Amino acid sequence: MKKYLMMMCISLLFASISYGQHPEYKENQKCADCHKDCQIENIVMTDKKKEKAFVDKAFMQFDGTFGEKHCYNSCHISTCVDCHKGTGKNISKPKTDDCLVCHKDTYTGIEYMGLGIREDHERYKRGIEKDGEYYLKMLPSVHYEKGMQCSDCHTKNNILGKEKAKDCLECHTYNKDIIDHSIKGHDKVACISCHASYSPMELGTFYLRYRESSYAEYVKELPQISDEYFKSSFMRVNERPPLVIDNETGKYVPAKPSKIIFTTNTYKDLVVGQENKMIANRWKVTYPHTVRRETVLCSSCHDNERAFLLESDENRILYPDKDGLAVKSFYNSENFSIENARFVTRKEYEKINSKSKEYLQKYFEKLDQLKEVINKSVPEKK
């Protein structure tokens, strides 16, 4: 009898722990009773393990409670109806606007409809407003113009982590009659590397902590994310992302800052520890949702060090090191690490930059083609 009671207590304990970890379990279970292939507990949009591990490691010495205050209870979805709006039989398939509630700012998504990020300061709170944020007007993706929804490429199985999003070549053909497609070596370049018109990027994210400090008055125009914290950035841009080499495919793909984080901890009127301490320096592969039929020109890659995160000192425009940061250039990979890819080497860049006979031939063909387009667009004089 004692053994039976012991087992029952243990079972109840584990049950209470399970429900404590997933307070929305009952709500999701109602959906899962019928939709047995759509359990959401362990998919990327609900599982916070990677984020929690990163935050715990990066912020531990700075503020051991940072994750609990700002991340763990707000990141990602928790219930089916976070994406599937409505009730009963009126539950809907997620629309693009539903996705963009979370996929905004520098997270891939909002640029799809032609909205570019703005700087942090209060004076930039103007322009196009969506879900409480302000944006610049940019070119939307050609897919958005055609009325495509996120779910047209990001299928149910993709969201559930069972398969990848649709590839370009599942819908499009690689036409080698197009000059850019006919160039030897361009088969090593992912479609998105040329067809993405821009990517929203934050070059350096700052978390500024003020405790019992009058200095907080000087940053009051910045976004305040909690009682003690303000958030800022070195610079926020909407520009063509640099290229790196994907570990899985070996192709040149776009990349953007993932977690380049600096922290300052101010208590009363003194900085505790190092000011603007760099606690994370990661880039990651990105697939900007800014696809256009028109592509970049040859000079966007050739003769362009920044396009491969190889900017030299003499070509620098920004000087973050002179602002006290442990970074010489946000466009030079020597300062950073990267997830799921590797940076292009100087030797590889020099090979790309060599002006072979074929390169020059294709270059002039491209110029002739460009002249034709310009001539057709200019009305004839009568």
TrEMBL record:
Transmembrane segments: none annotated. This is Cytochrome c3 family protein. InterPro entries: Multihaem_cyt_sf (IPR036280), Multiheme_Cytochr_ET (IPR051829). Keywords: Signal. Residues 1-20 form the signal peptide.
